[in-house]
Write a structure and sequence with these properties.
single chain, 147 residues, mainly alpha, 73% helix, transmembrane helix, GtrA family protein, membrane
Amino acid sequence: MRQAVNDPLPGYWSWAMGRSEPARILRFAAIGGVSTLIYAVLTLAISARHGFGMPVTIASIAGYGAGAVFSYCGHRFVTFMSDGAVGFEIVRFACATALGFLVSVGLAVILTDVAGLPPLVPVAIASILVPVLNFIILRKFVFVAAR
């Protein structure tokens, strides 16, 4: 009989996938972190100053859209483990995403196109501000059936 491999973090994975609020925050941070990374890397990779020559405002739209798709799936199935109505949640998620989108694009327009700052500045600010807003909105407004 084969001996089981010792779990280096006993009980951690079962805790992390549990329904406690600290576990939910950990999962939110992981999903949000990857989503934010998708946004930031894609935006910088295709922007004029760092990549393929696209204006940073347009690059921000593409980056945010890609991050939003990952974010919805990750938060619905992993963070909040929601069994709510998809039609209800996706409309509310779209509203929350639109708000975050407007914040990130607005920052890009104002700070890069108008103020002339490098694209890294609005991307960094959006990468901090939008996740904080998203947790509050997703928890209180979008995935309410997950409670």
